[in-house]
Amino acid sequence: MLRPLTYPILIWIRCSRLYRCLVEVTVELSGQLLPGKPRRRTLKLDQPLTVRDVAVLLELDDEEVGLAVINGIQSEMEDIVPTGSRVCFFPYLSGG
Hints:
Blueprint: E1 23-29, E2 40-45, H1 51-57, E3 65-70, E4 73-75, E5 86-91
Parallel strand pairs: 1-5
Antiparallel strand pairs: 1-2, 3-4, 3-5
């Protein structure tokens, strides 16, 4: 009987010298994270990164990000972002 995996599996792809292996990730920003930045963009990366690394690439402050979601599932900042994923960043919500 197979057990479910509890750790991420990285898939290695053999690449030629002429082409670079790319990880393609779509990123969306919401709310207060938007000013001065595009709402949606696609990143082509040389290697898989964590959610925190993607936030740093987008120049987002950790203290402003209230929620990170990968493919509709709430994620931690240390989770690896798989290729072809959609990552959404949301600010903290306030009100009363």
